[in-house]
Specification:
39% of the residues lie in helices and 14% in strands. Strand 1 and strand 2 form a beta hairpin. It starts with 14 loop residues before the first strand and ends in a 10-residue tail after the last helix.
């Protein structure tokens, strides 16, 4: 919650990890007011989702997955060949 932190207590990075029961756990700081950190959160979610499924599953479900991340899809990061 970036909005709840004083300027002097804001994190240096919007994304880091912390130890949770011996497991390195990703953490993303967000602002509900400005939207700061949302792009980082979307990237982290995409990494988490794709790490848990096979490449075939991602390929089959790519259109549905990209609907969840419209900013990323429109940024030109989709390097798959366009099919007719």
């Amino acid at each position: 919650k970036l909005d709840a932190l004083d300027v002097g207590h804001r994190p240096l990075q919007l994304e880091d990890t912390f130890d949770l029961a011996g497991v390195s756990t990703p953490r993303v700081f967000l602002s509900a007011i400005t939207g700061e950190g949302l792009a980082v959160l979307r990237q982290q979610l995409a990494r988490t989702v794709t790490a848990g499924v096979s490449a075939t599953q991602v390929g089959e479900n790519f259109p549905q997955i990209m609907r969840l991340f419209p900013d990323w899809a429109q940024s030109g990061n989709d390097t798959r060949e366009k099919t007719k």
